[in-house]
Amino acid sequence: MIQAIRYEPGTLWLLDQRRLPAEEAWVACSSVEQVARAIESMVVRGAPAIGIAAAYGVALAARRLAQGVGDAPVQGAAEGAVDRAIRRLADTRPTAVNLHWALARMEERYRRERDAGAGLGELAQALEAEARAIQEEDLAMCRRMAEYGADLLPEGARVLTHCNTGALATGGHGTALGVIRTAWSRGRLRHVWVDETRPVLQGARLTAWELLKEGIPHTLIVDGAAASLMRAGRVDAVLVGADRIAANGDTANKIGTYMLAVLARHHGIPFYVVAPWSTVDPALPSGAHIPIEERNPQEVAGYGEARWAPEASPVANPAFDVTPAELITAIITDRGVLRPPYEEGIARLAAEAGRATSAAPERRG
Amino acid sequence: MIQAIRYEPGTLWLLDQRRLPAEEAWVACSSVEQVARAIESMVVRGAPAIGIAAAYGVALAARRLAQGVGDAPVQGAAEGAVDRAIRRLADTRPTAVNLHWALARMEERYRRERDAGAGLGELAQALEAEARAIQEEDLAMCRRMAEYGADLLPEGARVLTHCNTGALATGGHGTALGVIRTAWSRGRLRHVWVDETRPVLQGARLTAWELLKEGIPHTLIVDGAAASLMRAGRVDAVLVGADRIAANGDTANKIGTYMLAVLARHHGIPFYVVAPWSTVDPALPSGAHIPIEERNPQEVAGYGEARWAPEASPVANPAFDVTPAELITAIITDRGVLRPPYEEGIARLAAEAGRATSAAPERRG
After folding, report:
1. Nearest neighbour of B201 by CB, restricted to A208, A305, A308
2. B222, B258, B312: residue with CB nearest A255
3. Is the pLDDT of residue B72 over 80?
């Protein structure tokens, strides 16, 4: 199984996704700053994977404190250090909400341990356990989503996907690519069209690499070629991930996703978003409120060492776009498949989650 | 003025478009084979420019013959050489019809000279003059189309374009980019969004370079970002060129064009095709009959020296797609602006062209 995030106390190992598929190199992070920079520079990317890496980043901060002073009580400087770690990590990428969800969960665990009078050593262990739980739960959620999603695909499906939503982007298995994995293992899948996904080429580099590893038949295309494949009747479904889903179902995802949604609608092809519930931000009324990260123009002006655009030409490089809910056939979450109107389903799940959250302390008490 | 094709008797100079914008290097061709390879390897590209380069290639063949044997009559080996030159050049790129149009025109001139008893030296001069006329007429046609097209744009227009349809792609000025040039010179244009146009990046490399040279405000984007700009109301019109237009108006153009046409329709934005009449193939009933060139997979797997896709991943690399006539707001030709239903307008112009062609020998006689 591909797993791109590995933790041992004091060190977070990240498979360097910038260097795939040419080489499988690992980056070792032993400080919060190193984790934050790994997220910013896309050593690790994919909304769920960013959340997991950030959670381990908080655990690393606590582990460092514990190594300095042993099992002293969590007070003063320690508290400031954990808060600073969370703030630094929260600032790395603005669009994905899983990051904030994971950090909020780490913060809650931190406060609980502190209030229970835990020592720094205990705190570090607790936060490491919490981060590990986030990673393991993410994998379990991916498998659940994959089952739901595979049920929706026709026999012998030829699907098109964008960016990388696989094991590399999650705790393992993947979201949209997880559905593809499961559909393939069930013998339901015929072919995968892989958008290269400019500018960072996660499709060409990462999704193709994962599909090769699994032996799943696929073909790489430029993003502009998806439309003519649809017109030729060679695509049965589009499967994408999500970075943030608003209360009305509007979905932010990798730039180019909205294009696919419009094309799918025009050609009468189902368009599925696959994302864990932690991607949903019920506090956000619509996609108009989702902040869209503008990344370095050099990503568009070239790739790696190569630069092909004229130096003086201005570049726009929004990393994400927003697909309006009305173009989404279904949102496949670990808590079930949502269908339009999404407001209702999301409000219902949010209410259940609220009850679960408020019930949890009682169960623990 | 940017002019990428220059001829002096015996040598065709081509501005190497593969090396722009990094350097302005010229390739000298003195044989048909060199011209054919320059077209295949995209030293020169763009449907009208390919036609012009091929016309000069035929002239080169005649010039070589004349240099060998002086002003001997056109017979035997000479005839075979010109025929072989035309066949070799016709095989370079399958989709663009201007190539075949230009070669047919060169062949007609050749037969006329031969039948009139011209010597090889006279033949070479005549074919050089014919190729030069094709280039000059193309520039004049571009200017005419540009006037028609600029009339269609609103004041302060923000337009989106794909690939390169500029001076580099034509005898000068350009087709879609010619409209942009003229609209800018008239003060009607506010901004140009430039699709980078994967895989060969003609937008990022060539269109951005031309716009910089002219001082026209522009922003480079990845192809997948066009959709969200349209949704944000930041695009007033889409302007593209064409490689072949069928009798019903279906249009083959650079891969990604059909995507833009669907997106423009979805967002209620006019979608204009700009192409000289020589791009229209009235013998072809619809776009389903247009051959689509499949190019080297390496163009998608990487760029230049860089390779980013896994070696073993299959690639599809259709160089063109077909936009159905119903998505095209207007086709802007040098002979006027065509509106749906295109069958009628194209049939009318074809009939006029037929009369002009059959009338021409009489006028000459």
Report:
1. A308
2. B222
3. no
Euclidean distance between CA atoms B342 and B279, whole angstroms: 14
pLDDT greater at residue A356 or residue B17: B17
- How much is the average pLDDT of B297-311? 93
Paired strand residues for A219: A193
Inter-CA distances, A102 with A71, A130, A250, A336, Å: 25, 10, 21, 21
Q: Of the candidates A18, A59, A66, which has an alpha carbon nearest to the alpha carbon of residue A35?
A: A59
Q: Please give the share of chain B, as a percent, with pLDDT higher than 70.
A: 94
Spell out the domains of chain A, with CATH numbers in brackets: 5-138 (1.20.120.420), 142-362 (3.40.50.10470)
Q: What is the C-alpha separation between B112 and B106, in angstroms, rounded? A: 10
Q: Kindly give the parts of chain A with pLDDT less than 50.
A: 358-365
Tokens of A362: 């009682």
Catalytic residue of the set A138, A195, A236, A243 = A243
Q: How many alpha carbons lie under 13 Å from residue A362 in its C-beta half-sphere?
A: 5
Contact A202/A227 with Cβ under 8 angstroms?
A: no
> Which amino acid appears at position B144 of this protein?
R
Nearest to B258 among A204, A227, A262 (CB): A227
How many other CB atoms are there within 10 angstroms of residue B283's CB atom?
10
A77-90 helix and A98-115 helix, angle to the nearest 10 degrees: 170
| C-alpha dist (Å) from residue A109 to A56, A96, A102, A130, B337 | 13, 21, 11, 7, 68
CA distance B333 to B349: 10
Annotation marks residue B151 as catalytic: no
Position B363 pLDDT exceeds 50: no
Interface test with A, best of B18, B162, B223 (most A CBs within 10 A): B223
The residue length of chain A stands at 365
Maximum Cα–Cα distance across chain A:
67
Q: Which residues of B touch A304 (CB under 8 A)?
A: 306, 308
**Among the listed residues B342, B175, B134, the one whose alpha carbon sits nearest the alpha carbon of residue B257:** B175
Tokens 């914008």, residue located: B21
Burial of B101 (0-12, 13-18, 19+ CB in 10 A): buried
Q: Which residues pair with B323 in a beta bridge?
A: B251
d(CA B212, CA B41): 25
Q: Which residue carries 């069930």 as its tokens? A: A186
| Global ipTM | 0.93
Looking at chain B, which residue has its C-alpha nearest residue A314?
B219
What predicted TM-score, i.e. pTM, was given to this entire model?
Answer: 0.94
Smallest CA–CA separation between B227 and chain A, in Å? 5
Which site among A19, A42, A223 would you substitute to test the B interface, given the most B Cβ atoms closer than 10 Å to its Cβ? A223
Check residue B217 and give left, alpha or beta (phi > 0: left; psi -120 to 50: alpha): beta
Asked whether the beta carbons of residue A219 and residue B310 sit closer than 8 angstroms, the reply is: no
Grouping H, G, I as helix, E, B as strand and the rest as coil, residue B130 is helix
Cβ within 8 Å of residue A360, ≥6 positions away: none
The predicted-structure confidence for B235-248, as pLDDT tens digits, reads as follows 999 999 999 999 99
Q: Is the pLDDT of residue B106 over 70?
A: yes
Under an 8 A CB cutoff, do B222 and A198 touch? Answer: yes
